[in-house]
Amino acid sequence: MGGPQADLPLQVGELDKPTTSRIDELFVRSSAFLHSESNPWLALLYEDNQQKVRLRIRELDFTPGTAGTLADATFKEVQKLEGGEFGQELDLGSSHLIPIPAPLGGLIVLGETSIKYIDDNANDVITRNLDEATVFVAWEKVDSQRWLLADDYGRLFFLSFILNNMGEIDDWKLEYLGKTSRASVLVYLGGGMLFVGSHHGDSQVLRLDGSSFEVIQTLSNIAPILDFTIMDLGNRTSESQTHEFPSGQARIVTGSGAFDDGTLRSVRSGVGMEELGVLGEMEHITDLWGLQTRSKDDFLNTLIVTFVDETRVFQFSTDGEVEELDNFLGLSLTECTLLVTRLQGDRILQVTEQRVLVADLESGMVTFEWAPQDQKLITAASANEDHLVLVISGQIVASFDIRDNVQIITQKDLGADQQISGLTVPSSPTGVFIAGFPQSAKVSIMAIKDFAILQTKSLGPTGESFPRSVLVAEVLADSHPTLFISMADGCVITFSLNPQDYSLSEMNKLILGSEQPTFKKLPKGDGLYNVFATCENPSLIYGSEGRIIYSAVNSEGASRVCHLNAEAFPDSIAVATEKELKIALVDKERTTQIQTLPMGSTVRRVAYSPSEKAFGIGTIDRKLVNGAEVVKSHFVLADEIMFRRLDALELGPDELVESVVRAELPAGKDENGKEIMKDRFVVGTAFADEEQDESIRGRILILEVDHGRKLSQVAELPVMGACRALAMMGDCVVAALVKTVSTHRLCMRTLY
Q1: Is 247 a residue whose pLDDT tops 60?
Q2: Residue 301 falls within a domain, yes or no?
Q3: Domain that holds residue 99
Q4: Positive or negative CA dihedral for 446, 451, 453, 454?
């Protein structure tokens, strides 16, 4: 605020060059400008060289600079306050100064055991001891008589003044509101809304309501990260699966937060899926379709669910109520359905294994029925707005014109050596269908009118590459449609399909899993689609910046999906798992997905065991009990999938976990005399000795997980030093003990 005057005067909001002013107080804990009638007063809460906490008030004497001189700022002693020094002794734990605006004036001193109010002239002092000692970390003004306080243990308080009849401060009261994240900053937003910014946990937006509050929004925060480990669900060395899937199955698992805000977090890049509701428990679902059968709006109101030997129909009301229908337009519900779609002219097409049915929505009657000769089964079907193509007994192909009255176009037997495993009739290009031939390991584009082969591409060596299903989707903007081919070994092969000459180019191959994926198109808007691929690792395939992206979906066990977009559940999808049918929302592209396991304590160390499918976690608990801080340490076992606690082992008094590693160690011999290896957790600890600056002793523990997924101790070894780090060297445990390194071997459940 000093410095030479500029040629032009400063405007509101502009700052001049800073001016330095010295103060004698070195270890300042808090400072605040106070209300004064003349020059500004600065209150300084500081620690002197005898480690006593003192309060000093200084007066700012400021002289603006001119064109030839610099500004001068001096903090003078306030004479009427005997040099500005507050005479009374302050709480050693005093940490914050809160200035009081006019007309009351003065300031509040927050301490560990008391709160003081001091008036302008330090004549009137109101001191009240706290019911329970604490450490305040943040404060925020609500109005001239009320403040919000947050302490180190995540507690939120309301501090308010009690005034007498003269409008003077008579007393104050402190009201406990509840627990929040450990606050680093408080910001009062007005209207009873408070933002709690936290470095140690999630930030929160609260709505204050009298003597309590409601959490309105939580802003995720994975800091501070004290330890992390990497797990890869797509590449388990202990299992037969050898593929390292590029579908985002790898994730980072972090020990995040501190104290009561401590959490275990799974962080991965992928597509999120939010479950909206469960329609019911259903097993062996083979496919799903969403239909618009009610009006001409854009919402779908009917869900067709097919099983091995039946089909079920569910209708959604506008408010989300679901009703299962016993009859639906005369369609067959006692067979397995291969295809259901809406046709032009308010008609519904159903293809089952035995027949083709077309029903009229207005009359509710079947207007067309066709069945293959000799009771042969339909094995595959696909249609667009104009044409339907069937595969009968794997080798007979039949095409239909379905624009007005359904008419068969042609039928042809391709022969037993030309069996078709899957086909699709694309919307673009028209007049063709694409079929996969597993016996010859190829895919062909064929004309609907006469089944002439227009284009053929080999997919790999014959007898090794087996196409299963095919799909054409407009994934990339301003580009040709993309042909997706699902292979029996879990691969996806893609081509760029030119609609003019039917040429296939830009072949790409990617491994999604170990079993064949199943494709479904999900509308993205502007004529573009995302493709949902279901296998053991569900993935969303979408276009971004001119390229196709494969990203894992945060969904456990999705076996079939379809676009639903019901009025009560806009932009939703139906998802079938092994056990149930549910409705969900799925992101349109990849984002950072975070799964959280609240620990309520600091997660200091994390280790991961793929064979046990569990995490070993070293935690430190800090609790306030009867005004005293109690610190304990635990080793916690948590499940990798359910992300929940399985078991916990409490360490000894004053013992803290320092290191945790996973190790494969001998566990005896089998009936054939072969050595058995088993995953175990090795834990290094330290004892917090009050008389020593550093711990001088610790332990090494070896823990195992039994068949009931409980922890048990295998071996224990006291060591002369805190065990700061552990590593494995063969079957030996290497421990870093502050100043030395020791090596130990496990023999007959004994470390030596």
Answers
A1: no
A2: no
A3: 27-217
A4: negative
